[in-house]
Amino acid sequence: MGSSWRWQLSRAMRLTLRWCRPCRPQRGGGNKGQLSELWSYSGLLLKSLYHNSLSNSDTLLDCVFEPVYWIVDNVTRWFGVVFVCLVVLLTTSVVVVVYLYILPTIISTYPVHWVVWHLCCGHWLLVMVVFHYYRATTTSPGHPPKDKIHIPSVSICKKCITPKPPRTHHCSICNMCVLKMDHHCPWLNNCVGHFNHRYFFSFCLYMTLGCFYCSVSSKDLFLEAYGSVESYYQTPSPAFTFRETTAHKSVIYLWVLTSSVTLALGGLTLWHAILISRGETSVERHINRKEIRRLEEKGKVFRNPYHHGCVSNWKLLLGVEKRSHWVTRVLLPSSHLPHGDGIVWDCTFTRRDPMAI
Ligand SMILES: [Zn+2]
Ligand SMILES: [Zn+2]
After folding, report:
1. Residue 204 C-alpha to ligand 2 middle, in angstroms?
2. Ligand sitting nearest the alpha carbon of 192
3. Is residue 235 domain-resident?
């Protein structure tokens, strides 16, 4: 055995030395034959760099696009900070406009019970948005333990070289495995996973409700301001003070921004609500669709092992264990931990087919 590898090594060195020697011109087709041999040898050398029993066209494509992935991942990571600053700035600007122009109008024109309702509702939504955004960005989504080897796992992560528990996926932007990974959110500059999924969904929900509230509350003022801005271009133009023109433009900005966010974020929230009702994450949605098609071809029906029924899925996500929790844990800010550790999962049945990962 020992002499065998030495012989292989000396043969490889001899071959290399032969190729390194300057080529002597040969008669007939010698040069052509040597060139084609050199070509096939180079091909073999190139293949030896990346080929193994698991190599396929996907692996090759992955290698070719690796620099592109690297650039996208780094740009997303960097843009994450910009996006978080943007969310904070836009939210602050909306709150400032509401305090400066909307609330004073409500207080001066509405009856007392409506004023109290607006004050309570507006501030409750603001507290919920700020709390859930802060928690969603600062809470780690959860990662598989690196020191424990004997954990229930479905595969080994090729990048982290650690066991991957069920529902865990590798995030190329965070460059680590994430428990029950949903997606990497650039608006949070964080991955959405087991420990911050509830914060992420609650933030989306309360932000949509908050924007809807601002949009509806400022509708009359917006129509008034829009009419005033149109009259700027009449001759003679009406005499508005600087404070009045600023108020008009601020109210228009507020209404356009909050209405757009209500539509865009409302759609996203609805999509995530559908996924939660089905007991799926965004990543699992893609995997399960493939599984449905694969099993359909075999005449079988796919069943999601993490679907416990619509209401139970919501209770598991929101951490509702008794009725009062709907108020204390859903309608009020709460830092309770999610059900389970994100490593061991209760399945509704035992799968016989190997799980797609
Ligand atoms: Zn990983
Ligand atoms: Zn991530």
Report:
1. 18
2. 2
3. yes
Q: Are the CB atoms for 143 and 135 separated by under 8 Å? A: no
What's the domain count of the chain? 1
Question: How far is the C-alpha of 72 from the C-alpha of 63, rounded, in Å?
Answer: 15
Q: Which residues pair with 185 in a beta bridge?
A: 190
**Distance in Å, CA 52 to ligand 1 centroid:** 21
Task: Tell me whether residue 274 is in a domain.
Answer: yes
Nearest CA-CA partner of 215 in 100, 223, 105, 104: 223
Continuous segment of H or E residues that includes residue 59: helix 57-97
Q: Is 185 a catalytic site residue?
A: yes
Cα distance between residue 222 and residue 255, in whole Å = 7
Does 123 fall in a domain? Answer: yes
* pLDDT tens-digit map of 266-323: 999 999 999 999 999 999 999 999 989 999 898 888 888 899 999 999 999 999 999 9
Closest Cα partner for 172 from 189, 159, 161, 182? 159
- Quote the Cα angle for 195-197-200, to 5°: 125
171, 177, 185, 214: the active-site residue: 185
3-state secondary structure of 85: helix
Domain extent at residue 150: 66-331
**Radius of gyration of the chain from Cα atoms?**
30
pTM of this prediction exceeds 0.85: no
Looking at the domain assignment, is residue 346 inside a domain?
Answer: no
3-class secondary-structure state, position 30: helix
User: Which is nearest to 146 in space by CA: 125, 161, 127, 126?
Assistant: 161
- What's the rounded Cα separation, in Å, for the pair 77 and 185? 10
What tokens does 94 get?
A: 């909306």
**Would you tell me how many other CB atoms lie within 10 Å of the CB of residue 160?**
16
Of 183, 90, 190, the residue nearest 138 (C-alpha): 190
Better pLDDT: 219 or 162: 219
| Rounded distance from Cα 160 to ligand 1 centre (Å) | 4
Are 255 and 102 spatial neighbours (Cβ–Cβ below 8 Å)? no
In angstroms, the CA 307 to CA 279 distance is 4
Strand-pair partners of 191: 184
